[in-house]
Amino acid sequence: MYDLIVKNIKIYDGCGGEPFIADAGIKGDRIAKIGSIMDGIASPLIKSEARNDKLINGEGLCLSPGFVDIHSHSDYYLLIDPLAQSKVRQGVTTEVGGNCGYSASPIFGSALDERKKSYKEQFGLELNWTKLNGYNKKIEENGISLNYCQLIGHNTVRASVAGVVDRDPSPDEMKKMERIIEEAMDDGAVGMSVGFAYTPSCFAKKEEVANLCKIVAKRGGIFTTHIRSEGRTLIESIEEVIDIARVSGVRLQISHLKTFGEENWGKLDEVFKLIESAINEGIDIVCDRYPYTAANTGLQAVLPDWVFDGGKEKAIERLKDYKTRDKIKTELLKKYPSNSYWDSVMISQVVTDKNKETEGKSVKKGAEIFKKDVIDFLFDILIEENLEVDAIYFFMSEDNMKRILKKDYVMIGSDSGARSTDGLLGLGLPHPRTFGTFPRVLGKYCRDEKLFDLPTAIYKMTSYPCKRIGIKDRGLIKEGYFADLVIFNPDTISDTATYESPKNYPKGIEYVIINGKITVNNGNHTGAKAGRILIQNKNLMKPQINTD
């Protein structure tokens, strides 16, 4: 007897091959049978009188493995709202968090104190852990709706050990960082991430990161990186992380591969050549990408790195000091000589009520509202918001994005945290990728624009990331595998989130099943929290070197 039967459905098993019509039987948290289970068609999600099975009519629908968000930022959000609404409702059943150098653990010292203060003030969240196993325990106590595994954030570790300073770590600090990475990997982390574009990793030399990557490589982990520049020095930044992989032997993942700024769009062929030459050399490289042409990060990212030497308080002091402020302004005017740049940067979220009216407005428009010079407005809003300003940057090419998505070494990742339409995680105007990444790939780019076929798209978001991370018994529709499944309508699946109105759930996701539990029913979250923490040596196997 099965706990759930899906009848007469078109199955895309995640391998990238052609679909087939069959029934799927689920028992407990596993797929028990793929084939013919019984005669007749059941009504959607009803109890059979003859058996104790729940039945779903799959006619006209598709069944795929649950989507794996290989690039997520839900780390703290899962404790604020464990239902992970914006992810689960678009079919995500597993997330990989701790990307771009920032993770919820391991963290301690002044880095933890600053994070504690910020999350207590904004969300009422108590941070009472320092190590990965403490964070995992907290998540398990609360419960979560999806599966989750974590990378170690180099930025977080470096800030914890050495502070946010522009210098090399001392030998003792380096040894401490090595021990932290070793312990976190042994506690089940899937690898390490670095955000070279962010503090304090922007101050780190590649040799420092390469030495830590050797520890990660030895334990079978991956190295994901937000490279140092995705614009002016894009080529040098790609070369840097390839060198790190070459020296350390670590498996490399370049995060949200892009060419940022129209003056850099023409560099994509050289980027592909660099990556593919390294792959042919035997270096293991993959990338991830989201299906949008705007980026999302803090507004403070436009400031020079040196402004942040010494941490957030020092940065704010510099923004308040008129002499230093003039120096920063001079650098910004040299880098962004035209005011049109600020027309393409949209403020998406602030903390204070004073500046709420700027949400959804460009920086240039915000300056006009407050009748200020655009750079002065930028400095002032960062000061008033304690640097907590999110922004969306419209500087990418649609054609380049499509070329990147098509590459066989590119997976799909949202580069977002789980949000909701209301409550603490319903504030501001998050990037639409938060609500729409995976349906957008399947609807707009697969069905409508024929960028690639459905089996390929599903492979890029299911078995491919599972294979990359080494997640056992997930990512495929196969007997004995965990029942992480998505049932969607291929004719209607689409994203509905926009930059102007981003907090909209997608269409066409009918059911989401996580570890055998129906978590989305007819597009609505059931409240189920059947997700699990996935850790090395328990839920993960040592990944194989990529030979694709």
Walk me through the structure.
This protein is an alpha/beta fold. The chain has two domains: 361 residues, TIM Barrel (Alpha-Beta Barrel), CATH 3.20.20.140; 96 residues, no CATH class. 34% of the residues lie in helices and 18% in strands. The protein contains 18 helices and 22 strands. The strands form four sheets. Strands 1, 2, 3, 4, 5, 6, 19, 20, 21 and 22 form a ten-stranded mixed beta sheet that branches. Helix 3 packs across helix 5, helix 6 runs parallel beside helix 7 and helix 8 runs parallel beside helix 9. The protein starts with a strand and ends in a 23-residue tail after the last strand. The C terminus is likely disordered.
Structure summarized in a few sentences:
The chain is α/β, with parallel strands linked by helices and 548 residues long. It has helices spanning 77-80, 85-88, 109-123, 132-142, 154-162, 171-186, 206-218, 234-248, 268-281, 312-320, 322-335, 340-343, 363-369, 374-384, 398-406, 433-448, 454-460, 463-469, and strands spanning 4-11, 20-27, 30-35, 46-47, 54-57, 62-65, 67-69, 92-97, 147-150, 152-153, 191-195, 222-226, 251-254, 285-289, 295-298, 345-349, 390-393, 410-412, 485-488, 509-514, 517-521, 524-525.
